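Q: I'm a student working through a structural biology exercise. My instructor gave each of us a protein and asked us to get a predicted structure, then write a short paragraph describing it. Mine is EamA family transporter. I'm not confident about reading structure output yet, so if you can add a plain explanation after the C-alpha cells, that would really help. Here is the sequence I was given:
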Amino acid sequence: MDNLEERPSMGILLRVLSGLLFTGMLVCIKAVSDTVPVGQSVFFRSLFALLPIVVFLMLRREFPQGLATRRPLGHALRSGLGAAAMFASFAAVALLPVAEATLLAQLTPVFMAVGGVLLLGERFSLYRAGGVLLALAGVAVLILPGLDASAGNGQLTGYILGALSALLTAGALLTVRRISRTETAASIAFYFIVVAALAGLATLPLGWASLTRVEFALLVLSGLFGGAAHIAMTLALRYAEASRLAPFEYIALVWPVLADWVLFGSPVSSAFLLALPLMLSGVALAAMEGRRLRLRVKWLLRR
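A: Happy to help. First, here is the predicted structure for EamA family transporter. I'll explain a few features afterward.
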C-alpha cells in the first residue's frame, strides 16, 4: 500500500461508490438469472473484471511484476474459496431480492471473527460473542417468517446460499490475512479473478445459454462494475482507515433496496427491516474489537 497522505473524505466517497458499483454488478446478474446459468455468469463477470483491474495495476506499475508469488498454494486456497463464494452469491441473488442477498453478505465479518478464533488462535471475547448472537438473531428474523412458504419458490435455498457465500468469503479473507505478509494486493486480486473465470468456464459442458445482445451487455457490465468496485474499495483503504470507513459500509445497503423497488418492483419486506438493525449491530460489535485492539496498541506505543 502506498504511503499517501490520508484523505478521509476521498476514502469515504470511494467506499460509497464501491457499494453502488457492487450493487450494479448484482443487478446485472439478477437481470439475466432466469436464462443464464450461474457458471456462465461467473465466467463473464470474472473475464471482464480483468480489464479495469489490469489497467489499474498497469497505472500503478504493478503489472506484470506485481504478480510474482512465493505462496502459490495460498493463492490457490484463497482463489478457490473466493470463486466458490461467487458461485453461491450469484445463485442466491437469483432466488432472493438484491437487498436480502446483500444483507446476508454482511455476515462475512461475523464469520471472520469466529474463524479468527478457531483457525488463527485469536481470543473469543464478549465483543465477538455478542456480535455472533446478534447476527444470528438477525438471520432468524429474516428467515423464520417466510419459512413455510419459502420452500416452493426457492427462497430458503437462497438464504442458505447467501449465508454460505458469506462463510466462504470469510474463509477467503482469512486466507488473505495470512498470505498478504508476503504477497502483493495485485497478485491476490489477479489470481482470484483468473481462477474464478476458469471455474466458470469449466461449467461450459453443463450447458450455457445462447445470449441475446442485451444479456451479453449485462454480463459485460457485471464484470466492469465488479472490477471497478474492487478498485474503488482498494483506493478507499489507501485514503482512509478501515475503522473510519466502517459506518459508511451500511450506506451500501441503500442501493440494493432502491434497485429492488425501482428496477424489479420488489418492495422491502418487514422481515428485512427487522433483521437489518440486528445484523448490522452484530457486525459492528464483532468489528469493534479490532478497533479496540488497535487503539490499545497505539496507547502502548506512546508510553
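A: Here are two points you could use in your paragraph. Residues 292-303 have pLDDT under 50 and may be disordered. The chain has one domain: 8-302. It's a good idea to check both against the output above yourself.
Q: Great, thank you!
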